[in-house]
Amino acid sequence: MTPPSLARRLGVRDAVVIGLAAMIGAGVFTVFAPAAAAAGGGLVIGLAIAGFVAFANASSTAQLAARYPESGGAYRYGRERLGAWPGFLAGWGFVIGKTASCAAMAMTFAAYLAPSEWQRPLAAAAVIALAAVNLRGITRTARAAAIIVGFVVLVLLLVIAAGSGALVQRGIPLDGLLDSGWTGVLQSAGLLFFAFAGYARIATLGEEVRDPARTIPKAIWIAFACALALYALVALVLLATLGAPALAGSTAPLVDLVETAGWPAAAPLVRLAAAVAALGALLALLAGIGRTALAMARDGELPHPLAAVHPRTRVPHVAEIVVAVAIVALVLTVDLREAIGFSSFGVLGYYLVANLAALTQPAGERRVPRALSAAGAIGCLVLVATLPPVSIIAGLVVVALGVCWRLITIARRRR
Description:
This protein is an all-alpha fold and 415 residues long. Helices cover 76% and strands 0% of the residues. It holds the Pfam family AA_permease. Keywords: Membrane, Transmembrane, Transmembrane helix.
């Protein structure tokens, strides 16, 4: 008997909020400080570079998603257009790297709300609760994401309003744009790029979107444009209000902004929004990992039980449960908040495969110029090169583990 497939229940609005939940995660509350430390005022150039690379990647992803409206995202695109090995490496990097990211998001959520001795139990409880939401069906995931995104966006608009006075008074901060050199600017771009990466969650849900050839590209563009506008405004008000040196040394930049702007009463709300944003990113990541694991299991790249789909809720329940258990185990045993550089490596590798896959599409399937996909691939390689050496080494180790896993799997099939 043919197993049940995933159900197409998501419209444009649902897909947009899931993408925004992944993009407007806890990163927007923390990423600007290390970006400023790398580039100073040049982080605005870094943001522009990151935005362009993300735009190119989004273009390739949207084009591919319209042609292959299935679960798996770049794993599926790489497998169909480039072959089994590139597809596997994209999927492997995503599943392993983003599992670690989920643990980091859970710990970030708990760090904002609980004393240190309660953070791990609270983080584990958050993972279990959000996994339960996902298991109830993709429409429940979309509803929860909409609530989270709505609250976080309102708080970000409050932060922008608090910093708008300094921005109007001092103008767009253009001092010291290249004081740290192009190396610093590119490193800031590498850090800021990952704030945009959530649009891939929309593509991984391709099998659950109605009219995917129209809905997925439209949802990707709307989510990307909204996120870019918010990030640009937040970056400008941070630089205008705090200045690059103070921003670089801040552990809670948006909290410092509202306090410096004379809105201290908003600080607890900003901290709460950071915690809620981490939950939104975790919710979207759980859904994306589960669908990618489902696609890989269907092709025999991961254990076959992960391909199971619940007959009533139409979600990959086994994959979702296994991923949740793995994240809880990480949360309870390892502190990954500062040790997930290989996740960044994996994301760039994931998009590199997507861009290369888009380059192979014939003219009849193309929605964007081939040059834009080529620019996206080059951008991914450049940003990988700017990552700290430890992140690159960790990423290569993860790739090596994936290669060993696949070679062992292939050897077993031949027996």
